[in-house]
Write a structure and sequence with these properties.
The protein is of the alpha+beta class. It has 3 domains: 96 residues, RNA polymerase II/Efflux pump adaptor protein, barrel-sandwich hybrid domain (OB fold (Dihydrolipoamide Acetyltransferase, E2P), Beta Barrel); 96 residues, Dihydrolipoamide Transferase, CATH 4.10.320; 216 residues, Chloramphenicol acetyltransferase-like domain (Chloramphenicol Acetyltransferase), CATH 3.30.559. 28% of the residues lie in helices and 28% in strands. The protein is extended.
């Protein structure tokens, strides 16, 4: 019997998704669990698996279509089954408006539309040129009159100005050489040597927001409405770095622990003792989570995504490490699963690999707090009145003052030091 596949709800706040591409073509065999399509949500591009077996009978939605949750997107039928005709595939109109505007010479179509300008000294002749071409010509003193346009309808575009500039520059060099021979004096009248590079570097780009970047923008604005306060603590990481080195000598390179793996475990164990930090503000109530699910920020080309290590306080360090590696890899290749990115109760943002001394992060609402982790550095420290080289790391807790207070947050940071500075407790 034919089954209808609908646009799934891949998040509690998801109202629609972008069907990026079909993985299964019409007529192709489908087994339960096979990936049917890639759907882009506000948070990620997710592979949608089939709940049925059969044959991909028909796509009801075109690729690059924005589709509301629950809308039929495909029909899977039994081999040889005849299915009553359905309506034509939907989404074409919607997909058109979601396509990026065509780009002409670095400008969007709307900005590259023909304009009419008056050229001084050209008998008020009307010349069509893109705004970019007009600006470049003005910057380098090039008159548009007499330049043949290669754009639509004879419009002058950037490359026409570049070609004209080359010709003008060559002519000026020739005139300079002749003048030098005649007068014995060289008076260069040249365009700047790096004018082509200058033009290429100075062209403004108009980049449409990706769904991920748009979601980040909305959530960060919402988050900053919460009353943040910040606490920074410096941790002695010498023992942890020594233990990590010793453990990694016994592990294959792909399975070696990162500093962040230890931090995740230490944070998870600390959160057990501070329910107001492992919590969320929900308008009329504060929710203290029963589970400890630590979200870890992963840097992507399109922005940050948080992958979630569920029940991190109950898992061995090795399991935490392997899970984070797998989820981060899926996120970077666009193969993230819904369960990878949902359910965090507390977040960590680690910029230690970028040699950052200290920073503060914005809370991932509705969570009550986020920990910003900086680099492990060798710095001068005073021990018993003597100056020594120490191994230190700064971390800053951003907390929601509606849920917790400064004293409690400070105690959290102190307790975290017990685990980080006595790391054997993290591998027991």
């Amino acid at each position: 019997m034919a089954q209808t596949v609908t646009m799934p709800k891949l998040g509690f706040d998801m109202a629609e998704g972008l069907l990026v591409r079909w993985v299964k073509a019409e007529g192709e065999t489908v087994n339960k669990g096979d990936v049917l399509a890639e759907i882009e949500t506000d948070k990620a591009t997710v592979e949608v698996e089939s709940s049925f077996s059969g044959v991909m009978y028909r796509h009801m939605v075109e690729q690059s279509s924005m589709v509301p949750v629950g809308t039929p997107i495909a029909i899977i039928a039994a081999p040889g089954e005849r299915v009553a005709e359905q309506t034509a595939p939907v989404g074409k109109e919607k997909s058109e408006k979601h396509k990026p505007s065509p780009v002409v010479d670095g400008e969007s179509e709307s900005k590259a539309a023909s304009v009419t300008i008056n050229i001084p000294g050209a008998a008020a002749e009307m010349v069509k040129a893109s705004p970019l071409a007009k600006r470049i010509a003005r910057e380098f003193g090039i008159t548009l009159a007499g330049i043949s346009g290669s754009g639509p309808g004879g419009r002058i575009v950037r490359k026409d100005i570049e070609l004209a500039a080359i010709e003008i520059n060559t002519a000026r060099e020739a005139i300079t050489a002749v003048a030098a021979e005649v007068k014995g004096v060289i008076t260069p009248v040249l365009l700047p040597e790096a004018w082509t590079g200058y033009i290429a570097e100075r062209v403004s780009k108009h980049i449409s927001l990706s769904k991920l970047r748009g979601a980040i923008a909305r959530r960060m604005v919402e988050s900053k409405h919460a009353p943040h306060f910040y606490l920074t603590h410096e941790y002695d990481m010498a023992a942890l770095m020594k233990l990590r080195k010793e453990i990694n000598e016994f592990l294959p390179e792909a399975e070696r622990f990162s500093v962040n793996d230890f931090i995740i475990k230490a944070v998870a164990l600390t959160l057990r003792q501070f329910p107001n930090v492992n919590a969320a503000f929900k308008e009329t109530e504060i929710v203290q989570y029963g589970a400890v699910n630590v979200g870890v920020a992963v840097a992507l080309d399109s922005g940050l995504m948080t992958v979630v290590c569920k029940d991190a306080d109950l898992k061995p360090l090795r399991n935490i490490s392997s899970e984070i590696k797998m989820m981060a890899a899926r996120a970077r290749t666009g193969k993230v699963k819904t369960e990878d990115i949902e359910g965090s109760t507390f977040s960590i943002s680690n910029l230690g690999m970028f040699d950052v001394e200290n920073f503060a992060a914005i809370i991932n609402m509705p969570e009550a707090a986020i920990l910003a982790v900086s680099s492990v550095r060798q710095v001068p420290v005073v021990v018993d009145g003597n100056l020594e080289v120490g191994t230190r790391m700064k971390a800053t807790l951003s907390a929601d003052h509606r849920v917790t207070d400064g004293a409690e947050a400070a105690q959290f940071m102190q307790k975290l030091a017990v685990y980080l500075e006595k790391p054997a407790s993290l591998v027991i």
